[in-house]
Amino acid sequence: MSLRGRACIVGAYEHPTRKAEDKSVAQLHAEVAFGALQDAGLSKDDIDGYFCAGDAPGMGPLAMADYLGLDRLSHVDSTDIGGSSYLAHVAHAAAAIALGRCNIALITLAGRPRSEGMATGTGARAQNAQVPDDPFEIPMGRTVAGSYAMCAMRHMHEFGTTSEDLAWIKVAASHHAQHNPHAMLKKVVTVEEVVNSPLVADPLHRLDCCVISDGGGALIVARPEIARSLKRPVIAVRGTGEAIKGQFGGYPDLTFSGARFSGARAFAEAGVTPADIRYASIYDSFTITVLIQLEDLGFCAKGDGGRFVRDGNLISGVGKLPFNTDGGGLCNNHPANRGGMTKVIEAVRQLRGEAHPAVQVADCGLALAHGTGGLLGHRHGSATLILERE
Amino acid sequence: MAERIYAAPIVDPSMKPVWDAAAEGRLLIGLCKDTGRHFYYPRGASPFTLSPNVEVVQATGRGTIYSYTVMRVAQPYACAYVELEEGPRLFTNIVDCAFEEIRIGMKVRVVFRPTQDAEGAAGAPVPMFAPA
Questions:
Q1: Is the ipTM beyond the 0.85 threshold?
Q2: How many other C-beta atoms are found inside a 10 Å radius of the C-beta of residue A181?
Q3: Could you tell me which chain B residue has the CA closest to the CA of A123?
Q4: Thiolase C-terminal domain: which residues (chain A) (predicted)?
Q5: pLDDT for A76-101, tens place per residue?
Q6: By the CB < 8 Å criterion, does B33 face chain A?
């Protein structure tokens, strides 16, 4: 069964906070859920499907479903593939709707790593005795930034990608963020400023890294007949793909990501090609994440990412592939250290024509959103969505 | 600058032979006896076939750097994937080498470093790599 056209995104809401010192994670989940329901013109008791991931406190969906008062649920799913979870949730919601297991699904994300002072990128993590890779990797200083940095180093070695190429990705994000009043980093930066910012994990500089922010977001996915009865533009799920990329038993290739597989699956289901995509939300935990995913999704050939992103090619109104027009994780926010939710939300804004006028893509009828969750250089999840305005 | 203190690996009972060998300065890696391919990290099932027909074997401890990074934290250190002569790429640290001299393709050899648990007790040593 294809999921093409089997469900629509009818509600989307991004929390405006970037630092929520006086709120609980559960409260943030409630606020984004309420915001998405208001956006859709629906109410809590319309929800019969609920999706959340590891940022949701409690066992799977249990604590949050109870806290939110979701007492009419006939379908739940707490798949956790890190920051890419929420794109997978949209696909899973579409599948559940297609199977008749629910009609209107809520997906929530929220967290407050900034208020908690988390050293997300460079901090050491504790070993879990049950996780088989931990004893072989955590004593070696496995970190988020280091994992992505090794991918960048290898990509540079094999393909001649430069720090200046990577910097163009941040520059493009900053050009978009200047128009977003909620963005953490609104200042437009130059390639020189990026490459002259301090190294965090060679070859990645501070400005190659995303922000650490509090906040969250929520989506409502509904049966197409319901979507057409509501007042908002109808945004159909046209293609979906998921993948996991690990180490292949100790033979990792750091130059590609799971997007190679999830993207191909999503394009096949949608029956379109990268050339048809008008706008792309591309996961941007680091600049290298964007570059490798763009190649893997087929927007350019493997190894050509550096040339592809140069000279503002990702800037709306300037280049061929406008990306992350909210400023993305690099400049806007990265709530709960998981950027997949906001990737979908900005794609929905673009398809509705509700992005900031300075970055709105003209006649945006087909958009892609893609997420990577986990560690690019160790093991990660990938999820791709192709969305269409009806 | 002194090297950072390495966290003791949690020794799962099934991996005790691997860490006991580390204490003797020997690097053990997995071998899938069905395919003849080596794998890393070691485990009780082949990542190629899922068969339990696996064993741990001693590696030469020689390899080349596949990729690396220098973590610019308070006590900087260099992480790397080292491609072993037997094939697998192992996540490790590069030690006994100035950061600016580390290169992809550099020949390295295993050296074991002592570890400490949270209470300061000695743990199993961990395989790091130094210029060969």
A1: yes
A2: 8
A3: B73
A4: 251-388
A5: 999 999 999 999 999 999 999 999 99
A6: no
**Domain tally for chain A?**
1
CA distances from B102 to A183, A206, A255, A341 (A): 38, 21, 19, 38
Q: What is the CATH number of the domain that holds A335?
A: 3.40.47.10
Query: What is the pLDDT confidence band of residue A48, given thresholds at 50, 70 and 90?
Result: very high
The rounded mean pLDDT for chain A is: 97
Which residues of chain A have a CB within 8 Å of the CB of B87? 250-251
B73 touches chain A (CB under 8 A): yes
Q: Please give the DSSP secondary-structure letter assigned to residue B8.
A: P
Q: Which domains does chain B have, with CATH numbers?
A: 6-131 (2.40.50.840)
Give the Cα separation of B87 and A34 in Å (integer): 53
- Give CA separation, B18 vs A109, B23, B26, in Å: 40, 9, 9
Q: Looking at CA atoms only, how far is residue A26 from chain B in angstroms?
A: 32
- Contact with chain A for residue B34, Cβ under 8 A: no
* Domain membership flag for residue A149: no
Kindly state whether residue A288 falls inside one of the protein's structural domains.
Answer: yes
Whether B43 and chain A come into contact, CB under 8 Å, resolves to yes
pLDDT tens figures, A364-389: 999 999 999 999 999 999 999 999 99
